[in-house]
Amino acid sequence: MMSKHKCLAIIPARGGSKGLPGKNIRLLHDKPLIQYSIEAALNSGCVDEVVVSTDCKEIARVSGQAGAAVPFIRPDELATDEAKSIDVLKHAVEFYEQTQNQFFDVIMLLQPTSPLRNAMDIKEAYKIFLDHQADSLQSVTLSGVQPYLLREMDNGRLTPYLKGEREHLRRQDLKELHALNGAIYIVKRDLLINGDTLIGPNNCGYIMPKERSVDIDDEFDLKMAELFWRQSNHKESLQ
């Protein structure tokens, strides 16, 4: 993919995780979780630099071996549960600009907990971003939940979460909705740094299938990822 824009892919990987200890380097079929995202970014053909932002030396070591740049260890204040993703991204961008004299037009956030997102997903998402001259883009998957079907339970009493005429519509009469799957975020550098946001006025989406949209937060998610990984690779071996 030819593009005059320079793109920096940032993979944030904190050492601490309450839901799944050491999850960013837990093995998924003999490969550390974070390695899937690093390889997908490197193989996408649309990223100029893949950097891992981490506070953990072991994650840094594994990431470097997988081909990512790890030119800094993330400051402690950006490695807490309260630290915001935007601040982590801005720190990485400013590191490159202020210490490496490297400047990027587009910033891509790739969560290491989305190992089934592949190089083609990244390439297609970036193409949509460029073709639409977008300010930002997020990957999504078809939502299995309609907000008008949600209910609140209070002392055994069930009431609609959203009030309105649509709460009585049949499921097939409701519009298809998409949910963020956390796999890919793309944003213009200036919007991130100056606007302090990942979502701009011209915002686009890239639809991913549910089987590649697993976001690993606990052991159950990891088992789901293993299941979908096996199914995907079984299909490929039959082709």
TrEMBL record:
TM regions (residue ranges): none
Q: Which domain of life is it from?
A: Bacteria
Q: What top-level class of enzyme does the UniProt entry assign?
A: transferase
EC number annotated for this UniProt entry: 2.7.7.82
To which species is this protein native? Paenibacillus peoriae
Q: Which UniProt keywords apply?
A: Nucleotidyltransferase, Transferase
Question: Which CDD domains does this entry report, sorted A to Z?
Answer: CMP-NeuAc_Synthase
- Which Pfam families does this UniProt record tie to the protein? CTP_transf_3
Per its UniProt record, what SUPFAM superfamilies does this chain match? Nucleotide-diphospho-sugar transferases
Q: What is this protein called?
A: CMP-N,N'-diacetyllegionaminic acid synthase
